[in-house]
Design goal:
- By secondary structure, this protein is α/β, with parallel strands linked by helices.
- The protein contains 12 helices and 10 strands.
- Helix 1 packs parallel to helix 10 and helix 2 crosses helix 3.
Length: 324
């Protein structure tokens, strides 16, 4: 890996391109292998700011605001995982990059897995940070937001709740305590929903992957395809949104994958421990060779797929554990 760029020499830039007539905003910095950072739902590229410069010392880092999020376009449309993955492919091509290592957080982890499934020849590695799509369990608040009429509830409460969140954070700081990133980021994301277009995009995105029963998209039956795709799972052991148990089970079913947990982190290890987070990602890049999958090798892998990818002795127990 190339020698690190001194932090003082890094220029973090906010740039914009148009994809299919709609604006896509992104943060970028650094030189070297391409890292595409994919944020979660009701979030944006700013969620990576604490760790972005650390990563950019050794890589070209691109952190977009996904369609419907941040300052990217929020027109009505398709916000499914497949559509978001295709937008990332188009962004890479527009910026002149053929391949990248995808680093996906929460919903972004599901988008990253979908990207690797659809475009394996463009995927060098996967780094999945507390990702969705590896089990049913997800926080009750997200499940409740999928119910009919939630649009009206969110519209009527976003102002008071956001104000309460700001006041609570200020009170915690006044006492000399640290505001938990989970609370701060969730409050920040909820505050963005005051905008009607952002609220509609949020609900369209959420309902494509979550129901009141839990996560509706589960990649578990395709995890065997990760053989040959270097994969790193990063998880906060105190994650209240998506439990770390999803990561432990996924590691067992993803050949050659690694799992690194952060004992003091919640759902946002890239904010809780940016230095530890960046060190884990950069070490993974240094110690692994990029995947060389081609459409032909991918086709062969699908043809040789096992008849079943589920162990019947554990499937029932997993469903019970995920039902909460």
């Amino acid at each position: 890996m190339r020698a690190p760029t001194p932090l003082r020499d890094l220029e973090l830039r906010r740039e914009e391109v148009r994809l299919h007539g709609r604006p896509i905003s992104y943060l970028t910095a650094g030189e070297g292998p391409v890292l595409l950072l994919v944020h979660g739902i009701a979030s944006d590229s700013e969620v990576w700011r604490s760790s972005l410069a650390l990563l950019a010392r050794r890589a070209t880092v691109i952190a977009p605001d996904l369609p419907g999020h941040g300052v990217s376009g929020k027109a009505p449309g398709d916000y499914s995982l497949g559509s978001l993955a295709s937008s990332l492919r188009d962004l890479l091509v527009t910026l002149g990059h053929e391949r990248a290592t995808l680093v996906g957080h929460s919903l972004g982890g599901g988008v990253a897995m979908q990207f690797a499934y659809m475009f394996p020849e463009r995927t060098e590695r996967l780094v999945l940070v507390s990702p969705g799509g590896l089990g049913r369990t997800v926080h009750l608040l997200l499940r409740a937001a999928t119910l009919p009429g939630s649009e009206l509830v969110i519209a009527g409460t976003v102002g008071p709740i956001a104000a309460l969140g700001r006041a609570s954070a200020a009170a915690v700081r006044h006492l000399g305590l640290r505001v938990a990133p989970d609370l701060g980021q969730i409050g920040r994301g909820f505050g963005t929903l005051a905008d009607g277009d952002a609220r509609a995009a949020f609900l369209d995105t959420l309902r494509s992957v979550v129901t009141f029963s839990g996560q509706r998209v589960d990649a578990s039956d395709r995890l065997y395809l990760s053989a040959g795709m270097p994969t790193l799972l990063l998880w906060g052991e105190r994650d209240p949104i998506i439990p770390v148990g999803h990561g432990r089970r996924a590691k067992e079913r993803m050949p050659g994958s690694r799992l690194v947990t952060f004992a003091e982190s919640g759902h946002f290890p890239q904010i809780d421990d940016p230095h530890g987070f960046a060190a884990a990602v950069l070490e993974f890049l240094q110690e692994t060779a990029p995947s060389c999958l081609t459409p032909e090798s991918w086709s062969e892998r699908l043809r040789d797929a096992p008849l079943t990818n589920e162990d019947p002795t554990t499937a029932g127990r997993e469903r019970v554990r995920d039902s909460g």
